[in-house]
Amino acid sequence: MATEAAPMSTADGDSAARRRAAGGTARGVARVAVLVAILVVVLYPLIWVLGSSLKSPTEVASNLSVIPQDPTWANYPDGWNYLSNISFGRFFWNSTVISMATVVANAVSCLLAAYAFARLRFRARRFWFAIMIGTLLLPSHVLIVPQYIMFNSFGWIDTPLPLIVPKLLATEAFFVFLMVQFMRGIPRELDDAAKIDGCSPFGVFRYVIVPLARPALVTTAIFSFIWTWNDFLTQLIYLPSVESYTVPIGLRLFIDSTGQTSLGPMFAMSVLSLLPVFLFFLAFQKMLVQGINTSGLKG
Questions:
Q1: Spatial CA neighbour of 179 closest among 212, 130, 226
Q2: Is the domain of 235 the same as that of 280?
Q3: Which of 95, 151, 182, 296 gives 162 a disulfide partner, CB atoms 3.0 to 4.6 angstroms apart?
Q4: What is the rounded distance in angstroms from the CA atom of residue 192 to the CA atom of residue 186?
Q5: Can you tell me the distance from the alpha carbon of 170 to that of 101, in angstroms, rounded to the nearest whole number?
Q6: Cβ neighbours of residue 239 under 8 Å, at least 6 residues apart?
């Protein structure tokens, strides 16, 4: 009897294993299907804009489907040279200068401020840190009028200075808070070891904090670039002349005062405006996801 039961037990075990494998496969397929459905919903607006950029003006208004019936690339040169006296490349250059300068200004100033709050000891440190966090509760729109009056008295209107200089003063409290929280996770033993080797507070900042804070710096750089590149209201206020326009303001020029809209060229330039953000994120995504992976912390 024992010899006959053994093959039955083996068969039952194989059957159970096959059922578990089939159940795991079904769950895997279901998860993939859900992820694909979410991906389609998220990417649909982007795919629709891309398809619309290849439609003729009449087809944009009549064909609401994603795929154009008669694709045309004419919208791209038409949009690039839409204005007779200036090309759309000028707007790309203005946005690139302002965005890159903002990235550098935010990274440097916020890192210095975060180091002071996280590592240095000075009077009323917690009070000033609370004040800095409190600025996150203050809507930026309430500061537009006094800031405009101040920058106008400086003669900075219609220049990139109102968009860049304030970033040098660590005015982005969110990035300061992000870096402070990151630095609090760095062991203070590394600071003590650097001081034993003769490092001053600035030496600790340069040789210990800056190399280990790279993930926080990359996160700050990515969000600074994206937010600045897509900013519309602030740039519209401080950049009144067409020669100073950035990409978000330049896209508005495709709608004239009579309500006429050049949809095809506008969609084409909208697609091009997404490329710098995508390429910037693609270049730094590896550093963004790597987390804290440095020799100083692993040891």
A1: 212
A2: yes
A3: 151
A4: 12
A5: 14
A6: 94, 158, 160, 245, 246, 249
Per-residue H/E/C for 114-129: HHHHHHCCCCCHHHHH
- Among 47, 43, 44, smallest CA distance to 68 is for 47
Helix (H, G, I), strand (E, B) or coil at 62: helix
**Token pair in block for residue 108:** 């440097």
- Give the per-residue pLDDT at 1: 43
Half-sphere exposure of residue 165: CA atoms within 13 angstroms, side-chain side: 11
- Residue 18's pLDDT is 67
Q: Are 141 and 152 in contact (CB under 8 A)?
A: no
Give the tens place of pLDDT for each residue, 189-219.
Answer: 988 898 888 888 889 998 889 988 888 888 8
Angle at 213 between CA 133 and CA 96, to 5 degrees: 80
Structural domain range at position 43: 15-76
Report d(CA 251, CA 247) in Å as an integer: 6
Total domain count for the chain? 2
Residue 83 belongs to some domain of the structure: no
Task: Tell me the torsion sign for CA atoms 50, 277, 91, 169.
Answer: positive
